[in-house]
Amino acid sequence: MKKFIKLNPSQLLISVFVVSISVGTLLLKLPFSTHDHIKWIDALFIATSAMTVTGLATVDPGTTFTTFGQLIIALLIQVGGLGIMSFAVLIFIMLGKKIGLKERLLMQHALNQTSVGGIIKLVKYLFVFSITIEMIAMVFLAIRWVPQYGLSKGLFYSFFHSISAFNNAGFALWPDNLIQYVGDPIINIVISFLFIIGGIGFTVLVDVWKKRSYRKLSLHTKLMLTGTLVLNIVAMFFIFCVEYSNPQTLGNLSLGDKLWASYFQAVSPRTAGFNTVDMGGLDETTIFFIIILMFIGAGSGSTGGGIKLTTALVIGLATVTFLRGKNDIVVSKRTINSSFILKALAITMISIVFVILGILLLNITEKEASFLDIMFEVVSAFGTVGLSTGLTGMLTFAGKQIIIFIMFLGKIGPLTLMFSLASPSKEKIRYPQEDILTG
Amino acid sequence: MKKFIKLNPSQLLISVFVVSISVGTLLLKLPFSTHDHIKWIDALFIATSAMTVTGLATVDPGTTFTTFGQLIIALLIQVGGLGIMSFAVLIFIMLGKKIGLKERLLMQHALNQTSVGGIIKLVKYLFVFSITIEMIAMVFLAIRWVPQYGLSKGLFYSFFHSISAFNNAGFALWPDNLIQYVGDPIINIVISFLFIIGGIGFTVLVDVWKKRSYRKLSLHTKLMLTGTLVLNIVAMFFIFCVEYSNPQTLGNLSLGDKLWASYFQAVSPRTAGFNTVDMGGLDETTIFFIIILMFIGAGSGSTGGGIKLTTALVIGLATVTFLRGKNDIVVSKRTINSSFILKALAITMISIVFVILGILLLNITEKEASFLDIMFEVVSAFGTVGLSTGLTGMLTFAGKQIIIFIMFLGKIGPLTLMFSLASPSKEKIRYPQEDILTG
Ligand SMILES: [K+]
Ligand SMILES: [K+]
Q1: Which of A33, A111, A308, B173 has the fewest beta carbons closer than 10 A?
Q2: Is the interface score ipTM higher than 0.85?
Q3: Looking at the 3D structure of chain B, how many domains does it have?
Q4: Looking at chain A from residue 173 to 232, which residues have their Cβ under 8 Å from any Cβ of chain B?
């Protein structure tokens, strides 16, 4: 135990994830977890997918697993989504142990908070808030599903999908995900509300709750709110226009259903991963567009993945600032520190490198698959999104291993991994500057 | 004339390119330029492709154009490759006019030199050096082609391909480019020597010529030499391994020819655009890998395109520096100014955005083409590379227009365009800094 604690925060985080996924795999492999026998690789795949709140599935969760198995999946999602760290701290609290700086630093790392103080308070809020939201949403979902499936199955379905949506897991218990509810207002509103709240980042919610005035909000909150709104509107418009007459997606729907479907498929790719239209039927243009949305992802410190919206915004703002011949990135009368540019650049580049390596590897193992489907699958796994054009179910054994690894990487975060490998060192000598040519 | 001079450097550069391409289009459309009638759009396409030294072709240059037409193409390549700017200054010199600061700034912009002084001298060197290299190479190529095609055709072919190679244009007068010379040492060595020299950047050559010692070389030169060597070796190894048993590319070649082909196809994608194996027959993994090479491109101030090798290196070094927890990018005991990071970031991001927009547009116009072929075509045009998996000849009218525009953008440089649109302004107010969360 002493040796375990001696690991640095990143190594500890990775260890905890590995242990949880292993336990999850064992539980899903239990005879009463599935109706029929499933392979170890599929149990590992589903456990990793649930723990990393991705939602990709090599077997159909609805028909493969028993209610017990589905409960395990829901628990893994909840553990993964809220963050093992918050759980670890909670267990420390419940055991009455004093929380040391080391654990608090670990939490800070996990939730990406800028100050150490108030972390514990935040985790308590986080826990209470999440459970409350999930319970309220469960009631709303039950309005639809109890009449449809009866009390016990209806409630369980409401419970499962409430957890899956709030934690941005994207798991659904129907083989075609939520396609049958494409025009259903309750399902569209409740599910998307859950994953937007879960994906915008807890700090944003706390900030909105405390300030209650746009002007007083922190820069981070303003960027997240405006960015989310603009990106969602653009995405909805794009999907609506491109897919309008595609018979495999929006073509045969009424105008109202077309709008619901465009809305849902616009907000879902940035980590939620649910779908109300067939991803395999989308136009290649839309598929490529969704790949970009999946890569950008949700908010920092949320249940979502991707490089994060603020990272993308900092890069975009840095580019615009450079083009305008200015030095400081100024938004809403605040200057963004240049160290954030370097951080955003590093996050984006490492992510691009990992995604490219993933695509190259999967291209080698999946000879039959088209390049675009492979690219979609890799970015979906890396951004822990869970959408698929249909490749997941056809993956080879090697392909499954690659996607498992990418989901793991995507959730742990490339930065965390790299930090754990590299030991930071102080600059000792400062060398003279020299200009080079770029562009 | 007065009004023309009042344009800022970027606008002037764009104007000159537009005029040259228009004149080129008219000349290629002349009855004695082609054996049969060609469409205006194809004349425009070839003129743009030659002037931007891209090498993509909607009609086969070898069989479509007469020797006169091919001469026009060679001239457009030479004008485009050496840079209209150097020509403009030369014309000014020849007319005995004093070169004003404005013209010198224009030159500086075009050649990406860090100081205004010595620009004119550089252009003179550039001109003499290029012609000399091209003439020497022409002699070597004639050794192969005069015996094969007779004196007049053999010399013309040597002349044409020497210009096409040195300027990284990638135009060849055989329908299958250089595939018939896959194992020919003379062609492999002379052609690749030409485009590597032409693509590494004139400043690097001058530096090597003057210093003649690696230790004394400028940081830019060191980065370019090391980067080019490492990237070429990695690329050769990659292509050799992936394509080794592919019957459509290396599979049926002898080991020696396999090595020549891997070498050639490794060094050519970073702007040269010649090919000795069938691009359409490559494994999807190799195609994707070549897309990355094409995006990176050649050296600053060279006849090549892409975001440039140093840009990619700065981004990579910045990422590594960040991961090591350091602030300064240190290479070879020199610190790279942080302003270069912002510049490299901006260049890369604008390029990515343009490429993405191009892919989305071409996806809409080319319904029949596969996504990977479209991606390849757009990056090839943007990096002014000229390789194609076969899509160029099948482009729709709208698709041709899009590729013409992308080649133009790729050569003029996204930065130049953006600078010409935006008017730089001084920072007036400095706002307080505020932290945000990324990643
Ligand atoms: K997900
Ligand atoms: K080229």
Answers
A1: B173
A2: no
A3: 1
A4: 201, 203, 218-220, 223
